[in-house]
Write a structure and sequence with these properties.
By secondary structure, the chain is α/β, with parallel strands linked by helices. It is built from ten helices and 17 strands. The strands form three sheets. The protein has an eight-stranded mixed beta sheet, with helices on both faces. A hairpin with a 5-residue loop joins strand 2 and strand 3. Helix 5 crosses helix 7. It is globular. Bound molecules: zinc ion. Zinc ion binds next to loops.
Length: 387
């Protein structure tokens, strides 16, 4: 490493291994972009991923938080999908039952639009405090919203249960962030529950579309557990869900037996998998390029305009001459344009006119839902999952 003062943000270790670079990726994947020109000229930045040999945490050393804005144009909700909503509901029920979260005060850090917080408050007859820079301040129903980033100034917020979904991967200073949550708990017996993407699957599959600028921090079961234990937590649950795409952790303050869970890998195992990632991505790219050559002249659309879709199209350099449109069921995204590659985002109903031959499915968990929608639209296309 040329920089000697570089530390792992999770364990402060200095043995860091560079394993993947991608130059000029779009900074934002989830902005609502009204014009094709604006979309094509979106700001770009670099990915330089490092893996820590001490704890197995992975992060983008080139990440600059000041480039990102989560303002009005930001739309990261997956709440239009039945599959996703069913999962959110089952997770809310699991946490309510497992941790006895009824008639309690719940703090959700990074609550986005507040859909999950509303749900868990309603299902368990709870009250909520939601913190998110993208949410308007004020009180709606059972929930009070604070329009800000979570940080030490909120360490005195009192709650009986703290949850944090799909947020830690956006936080560069991971140890500081989890330590602040630990301070919030004090000596009280409060459960903290987290959900975030599992990177071991991404490494294993060479899933380059799951690595993007908005995610600066990449965890696996082992590195997440080591971070929590290092910040004074005892972990009670650590599991994979959503087709093994998400890691789910439950912990409370304490320094109990640190017997690792079966799904925790060692730092060495993660570093070894990280080193294999670059060659696997190269294989993936070659295989997709061969497919696109074979598909020459056919009408191809991609399903899913979120980060995965942006990462897929930009890494492969696929403009709207090759992938004509991108489909999304979120009405807010329809009529907008894909960052960098510029495809127009369409509603499923437009497929009846477009009549694609091939539909690339960015997240295979939605395949059944997509097949049913294509049937409704009278589209007989080949579905090709990205995996
Ligand atoms: Zn580390």
């Amino acid at each position: 490493m040329s920089q000697t003062q570089l530390f792992c943000p999770s364990c402060k270790g200095q043995r860091l291994r560079a394993f993947y670079q991608a130059a000029g990726v779009p900074v934002h994947c989830n902005l609502l972009l009204d014009h094709r020109d604006e979309a094509i000229h979106q700001p770009r930045a670099d990915l330089e991923l490092l893996a820590c040999e001490g704890c197995g945490f992975m992060f983008n050393r080139a990440f600059d938080e000041s480039k990102l804005s989560y303002g009005e144009q930001y739309e990261g909700s997956q709440g239009s999908s039945g599959t996703f909503n069913a999962f959110a509901r089952s997770l809310a029920m699991r946490w309510i039952e497992r941790y006895g979260v009824r008639n309690k005060t719940i703090l959700e850090i990074g609550c986005g639009g507040g859909e999950f917080l509303d749900l868990i408050c309603e299902l368990g007859d709870n009250r909520g405090i939601g913190i998110d820079p993208a949410h308007a301040p004020g009180t709606t129903g059972r929930v009070r919203y604070i329009a800000d980033r979570y940080g030490p100034r909120y360490a005195d917020l009192q709650a009986d249960f703290v949850c944090c979904r799909h947020t830690l991967e956006h936080i560069p200073q991971t140890h500081d962030f989890i330590s602040t949550i630990r301070q919030t708990l004090g000596n009280r017996h409060v459960t903290v529950a987290l959900e975030l993407p599992d990177t071991s699957r991404i490494l294993r599959e060479g899933a380059f579309w799951d690595v993007y600028y908005e995610h600066c921090s990449y965890f696996t079961a082992g590195s997440l557990a080591r971070l929590f234990r290092g910040c004074g937590f005892e972990i009670t649950h650590l599991e994979l869900d959503y087709d093994d795409q998400y890691l789910i952790l439950g912990a409370h303050a304490g320094a109990g037996a640190a017997k690792p869970f079966a799904i925790e890998e060692s730092p060495d195992q993660i570093v070894a998998a990280a080193i294999e990632f670059g060659p696997k991505v190269e294989e993936q790219c070659q295989s997709w390029r061969r497919r696109f050559e074979q598909w020459h002249g056919r009408r191809i659309v991609l399903w899913g305009s979120g980060s995965k879709g942006v990462g897929f199209l930009t890494t492969l350099g696929l403009g709207d001459d090759q992938v004509r449109h991108v489909v999304d069921i979120n009405p807010k995204k329809q009529g907008k344009f894909m960052a960098s590659t510029g495809q127009r985002i369409v509603a499923p109903a437009e497929l009846a006119t477009i009549q694609p031959h091939i539909v690339i499915v960015m997240n295979p968990i939605y395949e059944q839902e997509i097949r049913e929608e294509l049937n409704r639209q009278g589209v007989d296309a080949q579905l090709v999952p990205a995996a």
